[in-house]
Amino acid sequence: MRPAKIFPMLKSVKSIIYRLDRELITAMKIASMPLARFAIFIIYAWFGILKVIGASPANPIVKALLEKTLPFLTFEQFIITFGLFEVAIGLLFLFPKLDRLAVLLLVPHLITTVMPLLLLPGTTWQGFLVPTIEGQYIIKNILIVALVFSLAAHLKPLEERD
Q1: Secondary structure (3-state) at 40
Q2: Distance (Å, rounded) from C-alpha 114 to C-alpha 121?
Q3: pTM value?
Q4: Are strands 130-131 and 125-127 parallel, antiparallel or unpaired?
Q5: How far apart are CA 133 and CA 117, in angstroms?
Q6: Quick count: other Cβ atoms within 10 Å of Cβ 13?
């Protein structure tokens, strides 16, 4: 094939690739917020329900942290309340109009969940910058923070909503 015939063909392929790229980006923009909301809901509701029914693998670390920080509360009372709190956070993220409340509740939750890295180092670290599986479980919350920042970045300022 001669170069004169190849160039128009390449231009056509390039045009198709660009169009597909635009369509894919548009589809991702449409799906990203509902998918982010659903992902947060799944994580929070699922993990919260596991705490409520006493089946969470995080229960021992929650109990150890509770004994260190709020020893006057019983674990049984706290874990059910904490689990329901997580379920509530997950549910709130399903409703765009409740984003501010969801973020407000998420902040103390994330602070609480990070505390074992500092207060229970024997459980969360096996060496310098080498987390245990429990530590990894906590550190993954960085993804949740990033996802929530992304959702919050799409909020309209309150004065624009009135």
Answers
A1: helix
A2: 11
A3: 0.84
A4: antiparallel
A5: 12
A6: 10
Q: What are phi and psi of 76, to 5 degrees?
A: -60, -40
Q: Where are the alpha helices (DSSP H) in 1-58?
A: 3-52
Q: Torsion-angle region of residue 74: left (phi > 0), alpha (psi -120 to 50) or beta?
A: beta
Tokens representing residue 2 in the block: 């001669």
User: Could you please report the per-residue DSSP string of 82-122?
Assistant: HHHHHHHHHHHHTSGGGHHHHHHHHHHHHHHHHHHHHH-HH
Q: Are 89 and 102 in contact (CB under 8 A)?
A: yes
The token pair that represents 45 in the structure block: 């509701």
Residue pLDDT, tens place only, 40-81: 999 999 999 999 999 999 999 999 999 999 999 999 999 999
Q: Rounded to whole angstroms, how far apart are CA atoms 50 and 108?
A: 20
Identify the bridge partners of residue 131 per DSSP, sorted by sequence position: 125
Token pair of 78 as six digits: 């706290």
Sign, CA dihedral 8-11-15-21, equals positive
Q: Count other C-beta atoms under 10 Å from residue 123's C-beta.
A: 17
